[in-house]
Fold:
Amino acid sequence: MAGKRVPHDPDEVIAIINNRDEVIGKATRREAHKDRSMHRVAAVIIRNRNDELLLQQRSDDSLLDYSAGGHFRWDMTPIEGAVKETYEELGINIPASMFRRVGSWTIPGNPLHMFTVFEVIGNWGLDDFNIDTKEVKSIRYYTIPEIREMLQSNRRTFTSGFRYSLKRYIEAAGI
Structure:
Protein backbone atom coordinates (compact mmCIF):
# COMPACT_ATOMS: atom_id res chain seq x y z
CA MET A 1 0.00 0.00 0.00
CA ALA A 2 2.99 2.32 -0.07
CA GLY A 3 2.22 5.53 -1.92
CA LYS A 4 -1.53 5.35 -1.36
CA ARG A 5 -2.84 8.64 0.03
CA VAL A 6 -5.34 8.83 2.88
CA PRO A 7 -8.35 10.91 1.80
CA HIS A 8 -8.11 13.88 4.17
CA ASP A 9 -10.14 16.98 3.35
CA PRO A 10 -7.61 19.55 2.06
CA ASP A 11 -10.28 22.25 2.43
CA GLU A 12 -10.84 21.62 6.15
CA VAL A 13 -10.19 24.90 7.98
CA ILE A 14 -7.57 24.57 10.74
CA ALA A 15 -6.04 26.98 13.25
CA ILE A 16 -2.78 28.73 12.40
CA ILE A 17 -0.71 29.20 15.56
CA ASN A 18 2.48 30.82 16.78
CA ASN A 19 5.27 29.00 18.63
CA ARG A 20 3.41 29.52 21.94
CA ASP A 21 0.42 27.57 20.56
CA GLU A 22 -1.72 30.72 20.38
CA VAL A 23 -4.20 30.93 17.51
CA ILE A 24 -3.23 33.76 15.16
CA GLY A 25 -5.42 32.88 12.17
CA LYS A 26 -7.02 30.11 10.20
CA ALA A 27 -6.52 28.51 6.79
CA THR A 28 -7.39 25.38 4.90
CA ARG A 29 -5.11 22.41 5.40
CA ARG A 30 -3.94 22.85 1.81
CA GLU A 31 -3.05 26.54 2.39
CA ALA A 32 -1.37 25.85 5.74
CA HIS A 33 0.90 23.23 4.21
CA LYS A 34 1.58 25.24 1.05
CA ASP A 35 2.46 28.36 3.08
CA ARG A 36 4.33 26.29 5.71
CA SER A 37 2.23 27.83 8.49
CA MET A 38 2.49 26.27 11.93
CA HIS A 39 -0.68 24.43 12.95
CA ARG A 40 -1.94 21.92 15.50
CA VAL A 41 -1.95 18.14 15.47
CA ALA A 42 -3.44 15.99 18.23
CA ALA A 43 -1.60 12.74 19.02
CA VAL A 44 -2.88 9.98 21.31
CA ILE A 45 -0.97 7.14 22.94
CA ILE A 46 -3.11 4.41 24.47
CA ARG A 47 -1.32 2.42 27.17
CA ASN A 48 -2.68 -0.72 28.78
CA ARG A 49 -2.16 -1.83 32.38
CA ASN A 50 0.87 -3.91 31.28
CA ASP A 51 2.60 -0.71 30.08
CA GLU A 52 2.21 -1.76 26.45
CA LEU A 53 1.54 0.96 23.89
CA LEU A 54 -1.10 0.62 21.19
CA LEU A 55 0.45 1.66 17.89
CA GLN A 56 -1.22 1.92 14.53
CA GLN A 57 0.23 0.99 11.19
CA ARG A 58 -0.89 3.71 8.81
CA SER A 59 -2.72 2.79 5.63
CA ASP A 60 -0.97 5.35 3.44
CA ASP A 61 2.69 4.50 4.04
CA SER A 62 2.60 1.48 6.44
CA LEU A 63 4.65 3.33 9.06
CA LEU A 64 3.99 2.79 12.76
CA ASP A 65 2.58 5.81 14.54
CA TYR A 66 0.72 7.04 17.60
CA SER A 67 -2.43 5.11 18.56
CA ALA A 68 -4.42 7.89 16.86
CA GLY A 69 -3.86 11.43 15.75
CA GLY A 70 -4.20 14.11 13.16
CA HIS A 71 -5.33 17.59 12.24
CA PHE A 72 -8.56 19.01 13.60
CA ARG A 73 -10.88 21.94 12.89
CA TRP A 74 -9.79 25.45 13.81
CA ASP A 75 -12.58 25.85 16.40
CA MET A 76 -11.62 22.73 18.37
CA THR A 77 -9.24 22.46 21.30
CA PRO A 78 -6.43 19.90 21.19
CA ILE A 79 -8.33 17.62 23.60
CA GLU A 80 -11.42 17.79 21.38
CA GLY A 81 -9.18 16.96 18.42
CA ALA A 82 -7.70 13.98 20.29
CA VAL A 83 -11.15 12.60 21.16
CA LYS A 84 -12.29 13.09 17.54
CA GLU A 85 -9.23 11.44 16.00
CA THR A 86 -9.43 8.48 18.39
CA TYR A 87 -13.05 7.89 17.45
CA GLU A 88 -12.48 8.38 13.71
CA GLU A 89 -9.41 6.17 13.44
CA LEU A 90 -10.01 3.53 16.11
CA GLY A 91 -13.82 3.48 16.28
CA ILE A 92 -13.90 3.81 20.06
CA ASN A 93 -15.48 6.67 21.97
CA ILE A 94 -13.25 7.49 24.95
CA PRO A 95 -14.44 10.34 27.19
CA ALA A 96 -12.22 13.44 27.31
CA SER A 97 -11.82 12.96 31.07
CA MET A 98 -9.64 9.88 30.39
CA PHE A 99 -7.12 11.83 28.29
CA ARG A 100 -4.03 13.14 30.12
CA ARG A 101 -2.03 15.84 28.36
CA VAL A 102 1.64 14.83 28.16
CA GLY A 103 2.91 17.99 26.45
CA SER A 104 3.16 20.01 23.26
CA TRP A 105 6.16 20.31 20.95
CA THR A 106 7.37 20.63 17.39
CA ILE A 107 9.77 18.21 15.74
CA PRO A 108 13.30 19.66 15.31
CA GLY A 109 13.81 20.63 11.69
CA ASN A 110 10.06 20.53 10.98
CA PRO A 111 8.27 23.34 12.83
CA LEU A 112 5.12 23.00 10.71
CA HIS A 113 3.18 20.84 13.20
CA MET A 114 2.66 21.58 16.90
CA PHE A 115 1.99 18.12 18.35
CA THR A 116 -0.10 17.99 21.52
CA VAL A 117 0.35 14.49 22.88
CA PHE A 118 -2.20 12.81 25.14
CA GLU A 119 -2.06 9.54 27.03
CA VAL A 120 -5.04 7.30 27.74
CA ILE A 121 -4.67 4.34 30.10
CA GLY A 122 -7.16 1.50 29.80
CA ASN A 123 -7.58 -2.21 29.25
CA TRP A 124 -9.09 -2.38 25.80
CA GLY A 125 -8.50 -5.52 23.80
CA LEU A 126 -7.84 -5.30 20.09
CA ASP A 127 -11.38 -6.54 19.43
CA ASP A 128 -12.76 -3.46 21.23
CA PHE A 129 -11.55 -1.27 18.37
CA ASN A 130 -13.21 -0.82 14.99
CA ILE A 131 -10.43 0.71 12.90
CA ASP A 132 -11.07 2.86 9.84
CA THR A 133 -9.08 0.95 7.25
CA LYS A 134 -8.86 4.02 5.00
CA GLU A 135 -6.54 5.50 7.63
CA VAL A 136 -5.32 2.58 9.74
CA LYS A 137 -3.96 -0.63 8.26
CA SER A 138 -3.64 -2.44 11.61
CA ILE A 139 -3.15 -1.94 15.36
CA ARG A 140 -1.12 -3.82 17.93
CA TYR A 141 0.14 -3.43 21.48
CA TYR A 142 3.94 -3.24 21.82
CA THR A 143 6.18 -3.32 24.88
CA ILE A 144 8.65 -0.47 25.35
CA PRO A 145 11.61 -2.89 24.86
CA GLU A 146 10.04 -4.09 21.56
CA ILE A 147 9.68 -0.51 20.36
CA ARG A 148 13.25 0.36 21.37
CA GLU A 149 14.60 -2.70 19.56
CA MET A 150 12.63 -1.79 16.43
CA LEU A 151 13.95 1.79 16.62
CA GLN A 152 17.53 0.51 16.80
CA SER A 153 17.12 -1.92 13.92
CA ASN A 154 15.21 0.40 11.57
CA ARG A 155 14.19 3.90 12.67
CA ARG A 156 12.25 4.37 9.44
CA THR A 157 9.65 1.85 10.66
CA PHE A 158 8.08 4.76 12.58
CA THR A 159 6.85 8.23 11.65
CA SER A 160 9.26 11.04 12.53
CA GLY A 161 6.69 12.58 14.87
CA PHE A 162 6.33 9.39 16.86
CA ARG A 163 10.10 8.75 16.98
CA TYR A 164 10.71 12.19 18.45
CA SER A 165 7.76 12.09 20.84
CA LEU A 166 8.44 8.61 22.23
CA LYS A 167 11.42 9.61 24.39
CA ARG A 168 9.57 12.62 25.79
CA TYR A 169 6.49 10.48 26.40
CA ILE A 170 8.42 7.73 28.26
CA GLU A 171 10.07 10.32 30.51
CA ALA A 172 6.76 12.05 31.26
CA ALA A 173 4.88 8.78 31.82
CA GLY A 174 7.61 7.35 34.04
CA ILE A 175 7.71 3.99 32.28
